[in-house]
Amino acid sequence: MSIDKIEGIFGSGGSLSKVLAPEYEWRPQQLEMARTVGRTLEHGGALLVEAPTGVGKSLSYLVPGILWAIRNDGPCVVSTYTKQLQDQILNKELPRLQRVIDRTVRIVVLKGRSSYLCRQRWDHFVAEQGGTVEGERVQNALQHWVDYTDTGDFADAPPIAPADLRVLERICSDDRFCATQRCKPETGCFYKLSRREAKQAHLVVVNHALLMTDLFGGRGGLPEFDTLIIDEAHHLERAAAQPLSFSVTDRSLELVLRALGGRGEPGVTDDLRKVARVAMSTVSRRPYLDKLRGLESETAEVIQEVRRFWIELQARPDYPGPNESRRYDPSSVPPIPESGAGLCRLVRSQVTKLQHALMEVREQFDAEALPRTETLALAEAERRLERVTEQVAQLEELITPTDRHRVYWIEAGAAGTERGDRRARTRGPRSDDDSEGSGELGIGDDLVPSGASAIRTVPLMVGRELQDRLFLKKRSVVLTSATLAVQGEFRHVAERLGQREGNYESLALASPFDLPKQVRAVVHTEMANPNQPQFTKQLAEGIIEITSVLRKKTLVLFTSHEALRRVAGHLREPLAAMGVRLLAQGMGEGRHRLRASFEESEPAVLLGAASFWEGVDFPGQDLEVLILARLPFGVPSDPVVQARSERAEAQGQNAFNDYYLPEAILRFRQGFGRLIRRSGDRGLFIVVDPRLHQRGYGAQFQRAVGVRFQPMPGWREIVSEGVSWFRLSDEGE
Predict the structure, then answer these.
(1) Which pTM value belongs to this model?
(2) Domain named Helicase ATP-binding: which ranges (predicted)?
């Protein structure tokens, strides 16, 4: 790849400036990043690039990636964390790249199996659920789309009722069905069609979840590649933990057992009954059907044992309180009833009996002669049995933990409004293609449904796995994000990703914005501590005062959903009386609808937690006041935070300085990044956590965002400062 060609594209008079004129703004940081990425792709190795908002990092890696793919007959794989960035690459950047480089440039967005319809499984679902209320409802919603879709991508499907979302798990692509000879791109297999298209692309765009599924299990279906660019790389550690994490909840275990059949539930016994009616003679069929009815009664008894196990677990004196967790490890006695081991044996025994019943009916027919409907029923039965076997194996590991490099804990019903909110919005089943991403601070936040009692485990660290399966396997790996460095150093992030100093190159680009002129930053020095009960009322009073005077769109970021709800309660009536719209995450509307409502309303106050700390873009007057309710330190009682803190201390480090503080600074920078998205933006940044001013580490937070904070003793002073700031800013314009 010629670096001269990159400079010819990104230079001050290059082709990019001509194609994108007149809105194009030349940025030396963009050229520097493109050069560096190009060298890494050409010569190999690992590169970490911090590219602040406004640099134009997408084009800075897409152009070198495409040039490399064209020269080397690609493909180059690009991984993102959010669907928003995937859409930007496909819909906004691809037309630009085709004009700048070559009109034949091809980019394909690849998704996981669970994102694609399987027509074979759809036919089985229709046959199995025909005439039921749920079946008719789903058929009415999806049948026309199923008949005419060219992609089979659930993202393009009509919405279905939240109560029916679990149906998507029963009609999505599945490797057991794809293994059959009749499943081909030519016969309508959307999953295989997408994989064939990916082999012909220059750039294959995936999300981190699918990338990790491919790296850790070889089941992602990605084409062969040795060149990888990872955007939103600050999420890579979390994404790598997902395929290595698992949990068993009171709901999940019962759901997979109900899929064995009985009591009107479609399941394994129904599948076997359907096959028996075709494959067996009248004489042999009757005792076989009697056996299935007996197995259904036994399954019902097993489900009752499962319920008794969870009741017994919750009745233990060491069971955690509401919304709390109880950690345990292999060196201690797990706080789990001894009946758990017996329950696992009981479930395995039931699965074995059903497997024998499956083999018995298999022996009665010639597989080639069995009608298609019955073949599908048999494949579905095998899939359901595998799912139960997988769940009981996970429960056995959780009951008798063996891995000292993992974190184990019991969770008692999460408050988790964000988690519940995400599930209400999900269009497809969550597996290897959750492209929206989680915004919570913990590592395993998406593993358990809101409100469920759960036993969970995640890896303590994933650096070794990433080193072995990613950095040592791929020739070139580029990782980039707006926030990767702490005080200009990449060591903290690099070590967590398995990279030692000397094994990677790094580049920290300066912000193209004049932040001291675009941002007025203040810290409230007399607020109550965020842990004190009067804090939420004081914060609400300040928001009311700010909004009533400034009348600007305001985003308030929280680290606690409980604090968010309390503040929302204080704000609802006063803001309504002022004609200001209040929007609050986790209290009715989903994240995307909240964003749209905030953009449409004038004025408005948006209370956000978790995912609103990043990945939202409100340029110009869509956001002019940003308030941080507290410094985003990890919760000390979180099991993963506890375990990592202990690990840091055991290695001779200081848990606060080497773990809590760097993580909080990165999160702080992500939150701050919501305010200034364009060179013409301006805004007021308010931190209401007095520790920013009172504690020695506050200076590190302030340096991290590149603006000077002015201490203010009260809301009256802050409002007065805001009025002056916006007046001066308007006069400057």
Answers:
(1) 0.88
(2) 16-289, 38-268
